[in-house]
Amino acid sequence: MSSSRASSQERFLISFYDPAIATTDAKGRTLASILAWSDRKLESCHDYIQVIFPLPEASAFSYVAPVVDQATFEAFHSRADLRSQLRASLKRILGFYGFELRDTEKGPEITQGPDFASASRNWVTRFDHNHLRITRIIRSLRVLGLEEEARAFFTALQAVYKSSNGRISQKSMMFWARAAERPLYLAPEDDVDEGDGLDFLYEYDERKTRSRSPGTNVGEEGGHGEGHHAAENNATD
Fold first, then answer.
1. In degrees to the nearest 10, what's the CA dihedral of 208, 209, 210, 215?
2. Geometric angle at alpha carbon 176, from 65 and 152, rounded to 5°
3. Lower CB density within 10 Å: C or N end of the chain?
């Protein structure tokens, strides 16, 4: 990727999520306009999920999908307004899947909403393109600083999986777990760590590890939180 394209992508993701700028994507859509879509449009359109939940890995499905670089990563971890906008994206997509997000004394909690039975019909199945989206969403939340929300989403998915009587495949659950639990430098589709992770994600995970070690000042940890699986080829949407 050329430096000019990388810089353009960096500016786009920050300005797209910046409520004071609200720039449009390649198709002229703002974040607010996408979040106002009907559930039917969220289901049928396949090129918005990579924009509102970007990853540090290139998309296998859209060559124009923005990629999270170090500047974008640092911006989201340092700016509450960007994370608040990302949380709004999460709330909308959770409603699409039949969930609700609420804050509790113990942190964010995601539970099944009143429309869960109908909203879950198209994704509580052996495999669906929404399973790819869910992997992406969990990883994107963690990468961009909403670790607690990512963990709450995964917990809610675990409950659905356990009660689905085999309607959700073990493979999908495996990728959701990888997205939720692995170090950030290791993408869900990677079977082993071959040292190909991005340096800034390695460094972030190292700081987290040090901050948890005895005698380490918690204030040394950077950011405000930790932040391609296809049916057969293990790639996110």
1. 110
2. 100
3. N
Question: Using an 8 Å Cβ cutoff, are 237 and 62 in contact?
Answer: no
Cβ distance 16 to 82 under 8 Å? no
Long-range contacts of 150-155 (CB under 8 A, 24+ apart): 150/179, 150/180, 150/226, 150/227, 151/180, 152/101, 152/107, 152/108, 152/109, 152/110, 153/90, 153/94, 153/99, 153/110, 153/180, 154/179, 154/180, 154/181, 155/110
Per-residue pLDDT of the chain (237 residues; tens, 9 = 90+): 444 444 555 589 999 999 999 999 999 999 999 999 999 999 999 999 999 999 999 988 888 899 999 999 999 999 999 999 999 999 999 999 999 999 999 999 999 999 999 999 999 999 999 999 999 999 999 999 999 999 999 999 999 999 999 999 999 999 999 999 999 999 999 988 877 778 999 999 999 888 876 655 544 433 333 334 443 344 567
Q: How far apart are CA 153 and CA 110, in angstroms?
A: 6
